[in-house]
Write a structure and sequence with these properties.
By secondary structure, the chain is an alpha+beta fold. It contains two helices and 15 strands. The radius of gyration is 23 Å and the shape is globular.
């Protein structure tokens, strides 16, 4: 009977841990806001616009998003502090929408991992006539990242690290967004493992005590 109870306890602990890890792994848009100015940045000029951010923990990017991809779609790029491309996707109005305000979201075929405590940039090609949000209220981000500053450059396919407007339209440009799943921290895995080991040790002691009594 006691052995059955111990096995049930181990199973319950494992299920609880699995549920917790699964909950933390649900993808969600990493940034949101409630008010701001959404407009056409230029009717005659192509831009690459977006924003920088710093990671507070390792996480996995599973989708890239765009506020206004246009009818023919637009490319969203994610690159690191050295300008090295990490991921890209074509986002279109046929993709599902999510977040606040609504962003079109394109799932990555191969998710990519972002290192902790590193700077990255997410940028969207903004052909003439497409719009992006700027001068928004304070963006709300997932705890895995911290919003940095707007970045922009003239032309498509650019990977800017500075802003043509010198930050006068900040917070901006949204523009692009992305979805992440947080990677469980080692301490969580350690706590789970310790719990299982503790229950196993209790079970072994009971077996030894039962053998001695016999």
């Amino acid at each position: 009977m006691e052995g059955a109870m111990t096995r049930a306890s181990v199973a319950a602990l494992a299920a609880a841990a699995a549920f917790g890890f699964a909950a933390s792994a649900q993808a969600t848009p990493v940034l949101s806001f409630s008010t701001g100015t959404g407009t056409v940045l230029s009717s005659q000029q192509d831009f690459s616009v977006g924003w920088s951010f710093t990671t507070t923990q390792a996480s996995t990017v599973v989708a890239l998003d765009a506020y206004d991809p246009g009818r023919s779609g637009t490319e969203v790029r994610l690159y690191d502090g050295l300008g090295t491309l990490v991921a890209s996707a074509m986002v279109s109005t046929s993709d599902p929408t999510e977040g606040s305000p609504l962003f079109y979201s394109a799932t990555l075929t191969t998710p990519v991992t972002l290192d902790a405590n590193a700077t990255y940039y997410v940028v969207q090609d903004l052909p003439a006539g497409l719009g992006a949000w700027f001068t928004v209220d304070t963006p709300v981000t997932e705890s895995a990242i911290t919003y940095g500053a707007p970045v922009s450059a003239i032309g498509l396919g650019m990977n800017p690290t500075t802003d043509l407007a010198l930050g006068t339209l900040a917070p901006a440009y949204f523009g692009p967004n992305f979805d992440i799943t947080a990677i469980p921290e080692p301490v969580s895995l350690l706590a789970f493992g310790s719990g299982i080991a503790g229950l196993a040790a209790i079970r072994r002691r009971k077996r030894v005590d039962a053998g001695s009594a016999a």
